[in-house]
Amino acid sequence: MQKSKFLNLILATAVLVMAIMLATKNNGSNKPSPAPIHALQDTALIASPSTSAPFTKKSLGVKAELYPQPAVVIGSYDKEGKPNMMTAAWVGICNSNPLSIAVSMRPATYSYGNVTDSKSFTVNIPSAELVKYVRYVGRFSGKDVDKFKETGLTPIKAEFVNAPYVKEFPIVIECELTEFHDLGSHRQFIGKIIDVKADEAILNAKGNVDVNLLNPLIYAGGNYYETGRMIDKLGEVTDGIDGKPFIPNYSQRYENETLGVIHNRKSVRHFTNQPVSKEQIETLLRAGMAAPTAVNRQPWVFYVVTQRDVLDTLSQQLPYAKMLTQAQAAIVVCGDMEKAGNLKDKGYWVQDCCAATENILLAAESIGLGAVWTASYPYDDRTEVVIKALNLPANHVPLNVIPIGYPTGEDVPKNKWKPENIIWQ
């Protein structure tokens, strides 16, 4: 009997110890205390959805997870010649010669019958600011609603095919129906591209569509997204192939483009010989002038330098601006003492011009250019070099010189996050 009680006591003790160990494991009390992570860091980075190792795949079943999916509007006439629109995402280039577009529609849609009968349609590509119209057009049927009338959008008869296009959409593609295929839930219409029209405002200096200016929509999971910025150029896509294993880095993916630009900005000191356009420089200057400024004095003036001899002179005489020999242009940010007025002695012009400079650097990163801050003020010898090279008036004090160009890719961003620099109160 005594032996039985003794064994029961041991068993009870063992169970108690195991319970304590399990509770300790679950509440993490046996783990070292992690460094505190504040809310800003949590929102800045997209956390990995799980702690699973990379390449661990989970089956999602049969889903339309093909990205990006374009969000476009199809224009067509019905039998009475009434213009109609429908939103479509099952759209894409399907042939090179003749250049053709495939768009799939369900038989229940009004446009299905229109395109079948008229043998024509237009593909209207919206910019992000037109998203409300794209969503509206996709929500209602042309059987019940005159979508052009309700939205206030303007139907224009296409020049080469029997279909309307939307005047307000920046790109319209006129298509002639050549064939169709009944696939199941949808009929796929194949349209030969007869003509493409684009607003001049979204064309670059070479007359091509600038995707950054267009800012087209992407459809995914019932939501709409902006396209985002260019991250690689044709011909450079294989530069980083080195035969080493690929390991994805989910820790440096950001929730929005602004945070991505901020964290990916770097000081670029190596440039290609690709020209930089006047329009790109103006984009940077607009960003600079959007900076905060004390009492709204805007005590800045910007000199744009593109002359090769001046860039070379500055490169030779400024100790930390040697990269100007490679740069295609430079922006010299100056404080205008007349605009600063009675605040010039308080140094507000320096703060304002610094804010403008940071905006310029971020804007350069956002449109695929490289830039670097090279100081002039408060060094008397450097400011004298810039004043002489640009023949500046006495009231313009150069704060810095910013070389501008296309980066070679040699310069990379630095991780400057140091929690020890933060004092919480």
Break the fold down into its secondary structure elements and pairings.
Blueprint: H1 2-27, H2 39-44, E1 69-70, E2 72-77, E3 83-88, E4 91-96, E5 99-105, H3 110-118, E6 120-125, H4 131-139, H5 147-151, E7 155-157, E8 164-166, E9 171-182, E10 187-198, H6 211-214, E11 217-220, E12 223-226, H7 257-264, H8 278-289, E13 300-305, H9 308-317, E14 329-336, H10 337-340, H11 348-366, E15 370-371, E16 374-375, H12 380-390, E17 396-405
Antiparallel strand pairs: 1-11, 2-3, 2-6, 4-5, 5-10, 6-9, 7-8, 9-10, 11-12, 13-14, 14-17, 15-17, 16-17
Helix pairs in contact: 7-11, 8-11, 9-12
What does this entry look like structurally?
- This protein folds into 2 domains: 69-220, Electron Transport, Fmn-binding Protein, Chain A (Pnp Oxidase, Chain A, Roll); 258-405, NADH Oxidase, CATH 3.40.109.
- The chain contains 12 helices and 17 strands.
- It has helices spanning 2-27, 39-44, 110-118, 131-139, 147-151, 211-214, 257-264, 278-289, 308-317, 337-340, 348-366, 380-390; strands spanning 69-70, 72-77, 83-88, 91-96, 99-105, 120-125, 155-157, 164-166, 171-182, 187-198, 217-220, 223-226, 300-305, 329-336, 370-371, 374-375, 396-405.
- The strands form 4 sheets. It has a 7-stranded antiparallel β-sheet. Strands 13, 14, 15, 16 and 17 form a 5-stranded antiparallel β-sheet that branches.
- Strand 4 and strand 5 form a beta hairpin.
- The chain is elongated and about 75 Å long.
- Mean pLDDT is 85; it is low at 14-50.
